[in-house]
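Structure tokens please, single chain.
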Amino acid sequence: MRAARARIPFAVLQRGITDAVSVSSITPVKEIARIAGWNGMKNPKSRKLLSDLKRIFTEYNDLPGLYLSEEYAKFMNGPHELMFVHIREPREIEKFLSAVHCRKFTLLVKRNGGAGRPMGNDSDDGVEGYAYDRVYINNEPMDLLENSFMSFLRDMLGESD
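Here you go.
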């Protein structure tokens, strides 16, 4: 589980982990928001829109949870060995963890100096309200980030270089 304000771009992860898949609980909500006119930009107003829509759909029919369940089933029946699941809300993290039956870790990726400021929506503002298994401080320049994160990830997974 990874939740973060300062994200590691998935392209970096893909270069270092070729047998991984990444999914986000916000994906089906983004699709609905695009149909309703959201232009894909991430600013405080649109982040609040996505957060509010996610809450509404979670309460209505658990659309984000159903999406993650489907993606987890594909993962378990597919070729990938590692799945990154992006969930920001502590309650939703717990719900997902209790529903899956495999080795799992929670991970918060954050940047020093970027945390603690209110973002104006429940999803971002509550992201640090969970007791994560590990925290990765992302303060590396992009050219050093891949090696730093891959070393961290190998350590977390119990692998050696």
